[in-house]
Write a structure and sequence with these properties.
Strand content: 35-45%
CATH superfamily: Capsule assembly protein Wzi
Helix content: 10-25%
Structural class: mainly beta
Mean pLDDT: 88
CATH architecture: Beta Barrel
Number of domains: 1
Distance between the termini: 43 Å
Low-confidence stretches: 1-19, 56-61
Oligomer: single chain
Radius of gyration: 23 Å
Largest sheet: 23 strands, antiparallel
CATH topology: Porin
């Protein structure tokens, strides 16, 4: 029996459906589910390494209708844009708000979830790439923005836009589902960042064939998701065009067509090692004008070999495309209420297997994390939640020594000049293309309630800083580093959920400008100038069905 026939029989059989989804990254609920895994909650059957997660309903031949949660997010940023894992909300200064609501209905095997999102951002002016930088630095910055669709500012007017949001039309049977969706996806074990899929950007339109719960086999259980989607450009220039014109420069031209994305993720939990998850993901992006729909290799490029020699390439891909791949491992220890995880990614093919053995870390990125819940001495089942996560994107020595585009970095590639983005934001980790983050979270938690302190150090675009330094446009003291502290509170009261966040950021050498405040006598290493930024955010969620 061939694959299409098998899928057809699966989808027309008896009725056993999945319920409405918990959107990936939904405040309060998303992290609550992750904590329940650590506590050994057997009602959470999925690994949560492929999200959104889906609650299961008993076999049912009738209909079902319910209201989706009402979500109202708002935030205010004082000095310059600060945005991470907030979906269709944009990096912007000033006030910004998101409103989302909807319905869920099902009829037999069919289910429909409508949950559109409306975004408004004040989008106030702010200081971008410093005007005091040399013209050569502006050329380099313009070239960098020419490789990825990451606008410094989304126009010079207030930003208003409607999105389909967390909507999906599905046909489901037991543990498999086929559908059309615009939901945000999250793949991998990371909490703050993910290499391939997160809720950092708006959800994109995609066809999906996925599992809705772990599928048991004699060797263990499997989960998967296969998607084919459309990625759109933001429509805004990457750099301030007025400042470019002052230097007789123009924004780098990019193709006007949308991009086709084909991606697959699989997660495996061995039968003999409870708590262990081994998985991976691979994605390809191709401009729609380069897709040959009669050629399966261009609309299903996931079957391309991982080695360039086997793919028939001579230092170039056989089709103008960009691929990213990652593997991960997570060890979940419910008795200890702890987990440790690693996701390791590659942004470039090796030439052949010998090349892979010699330089497996070429063009690599990784996320390493640990989390533990420590029971507290009270009668309310409270815990101390301790979390550490390290994200590393900047290039290592093997990559620096190989011939490559000096401005090409993680999520960027010469063949796809919009990079790994959708509507101006990165699909994976929103910290940036070659940034590094060290994160520490400490919190008190009790059920859905959480009061915590988040501390992180974010080293912005380290590869771009290195390029400026090598070309004598900066010295080694010009790293742009954010030092951040945030108070985070999750709370629930009856049908209401609240998420409050107050964050302060000290941006050292903002936008790679080292401008020391000279002292008497002058010191070799001075402090330079720091931009201070604050972000206050509040999310209110009303659950109609708890």
């Amino acid at each position: 029996m061939n694959l299409p026939t098998t899928l057809f029989l699966l989808l027309i059989s008896a009725l056993s459906l999945t319920a409405q989804t918990t959107p990936a990254g939904l405040p309060v609920l998303d992290d609550y589910q992750r904590r329940q895994l650590l506590l050994g909650d057997t009602t959470v059957r999925a690994s949560l390494l492929i999200r959104p997660s889906r609650g299961e309903l008993a076999p049912h031949t009738g209909t079902d209708f319910r209201l989706m949660p009402l979500v109202w997010k708002q935030q205010y940023t004082t000095n310059h844009p600060l945005s991470l894992n907030d979906g269709p909300m944009i990096p912007a200064r000033g006030y910004q708000t998101l409103l989302s609501a909807g319905v869920y209905a099902r009829w037999g095997m069919l289910s429909l979830q409508l949950m559109p999102e409306l975004v408004y951002a004040e989008n106030r002016e702010f200081d971008g790439f410093p005007t005091t930088h040399k013209r050569e630095a502006w050329i380099a910055y313009n070239n960098l923005k020419g490789l990825i669709d990451l606008p410094d500012r989304f126009g010079d007017e207030p930003y208003r836009k409607a999105f389909w949001g967390q909507s999906a039309l599905r046909m489901s049977y037991r543990s498999v589902s086929l559908g059309l969706s615009t939901e945000n996806l999250w793949w991998g074990p990371g909490h703050k960042n993910s290499l391939l899929m997160s809720n950092n950007a708006p959800g994109f339109m995609h066809l999906t064939f996925n599992s809705t719960r772990p599928v048991s086999t004699p060797i263990g259980s499997f989960e998967w998701q296969l998607v084919a989607g459309r990625l759109d450009a933001s429509g805004f220039p990457g750099v301030d065009t007025l400042e470019l014109s002052k230097r007789s420069l123009k924004p780098r031209a990019k193709p006007q067509s949308w991009r086709y994305l084909n991606a697959l993720t699989v997660n495996y939990q061995p039968r003999w090692l409870p708590g262990l998850s081994i998985g991976g993901a691979r994605s390809y992006t191709i401009y729609s004008e380069d897709v040959q729909w009669h050629n399966v290799k261009t609309w299903l490029p996931l079957y391309e070999p991982f080695l360039k020699e086997e793919a028939g390439g001579h230092g170039l891909d056989t089709i103008p495309s960009d691929q990213i791949a990652s593997v991960w491992v997570r060890w979940l220890m419910p008795k200890e209420h702890a987990e440790v995880y690693l996701e390791f990614g590659r942004g470039d093919h090796n030439w052949h297997f010998n090349d892979f053995l010699m330089e497996p870390a070429h063009d690599r990125a990784y996320i390493l994390g640990y989390r533990k819940l420590v029971p507290l001495a009270d009668k309310r089942r409270s815990y101390l939640d301790v979390q550490l996560e390290l994200t590393q994107f900047s290039r290592n020595v093997p990559t620096l020594l190989r011939p490559y585009n000096e401005l090409s970095k993680w999520y960027t590639h010469g063949a796809v000049r919009d990079g790994y983005t959708h509507q101006g934001q990165i699909l994976g980790a929103g910290i940036g293309t070659s940034s590094n983050m060290q994160l520490v979270n400490v919190a008190w938690v009790n059920e859905k309630k959480r009061i915590g302190l988040e501390l992180y150090r974010l080293n912005h675009d380290d590869d771009f800083w290195g390029y400026l330094k090598l070309n004598r446009m900066a010295d080694y003291r010009t790293h742009w580093v954010d030092i951040s502290g945030a108070l985070v509170v999750d709370w629930d009261y009856r049908n209401l959920l609240f998420n409050f966040r107050f964050q302060t950021v000290g941006a050292l050498n903002y936008m790679f400008l080292y401008d020391p405040v000279l002292t008497e006598p002058p010191y070799f290493w001075d402090y330079g100038k720091t931009r201070y930024n604050m972000n206050t955010a509040l999310t209110i969620i009303y659950q109609f069905n708890r």
